[in-house]
Design brief:
It is built from three helices and six strands, in the order ββαββααββ. By secondary structure, the chain is α+β, with helices and mostly antiparallel strands. The strands form three sheets. A two-stranded antiparallel ribbon has the order 1-2. Strands 3-4 form a two-stranded antiparallel ribbon. A two-stranded antiparallel sheet has the order 5-6. The longest helix has 16 residues.
Length: about 140
């Protein structure tokens, strides 16, 4: 955020109920009863928002969506990004996942939800019979259709 949006100011940790974190090559969120997405709120100026939209691929890859999140200061309306399609497949790269993991740690968020989302992405690919590989190039598992 500091690089892409130099005017952004960190605000507070937040959670979004009724949604879940997903990985389809990159991170996303989607509606899911009895689930919660953990994250953080940032104050963004108009230029920061334009920069972030460009980085996130608005409107082709993601679209903006207003949601109500919970914080220690009460509910807040917030803008988030939601993928425009659900046909993407793939695991996040180790570098990308590591960046998100660092953000969770920086904000003091438990890693449970993040690791669960990664496991669910693995399970989804396995269920589709997709072979996937570890970063060292060796097969993670052989999936049979």
């Amino acid at each position: 955020m500091r690089t892409r949006c130099p005017g952004a100011r960190a605000y507070v940790p937040a959670h979004l109920d009724g949604w879940r974190l997903t990985f389809r090559g990159v991170a996303g969120i989607e509606p899911a009863e009895s689930r919660t997405v953990l994250g953080a709120l940032w104050w963004l100026g108009p230029q920061d928002l334009l920069s972030l939209d460009a980085y996130e691929g608005v409107p082709s890859h993601y679209r903006q969506r207003l949601v109500e999140v919970e914080t220690d200061h009460g509910p807040r309306e917030a803008m988030t990004y939601v993928m425009t399609g659900d046909s993407y497949l793939g695991l996040p790269s180790p570098w990308y996942f590591g960046r998100i993991e660092t953000g969770f740690r920086d904000w003091g968020l438990p890693l449970r939800e993040l690791r669960q989302a990664l496991q669910e992405a693995h399970d989804e690919l396995d269920g589709l019979g997709v072979e996937h590989y570890r970063p060292d190039g060796r097969k993670r598992m052989m999936a049979i259709l």
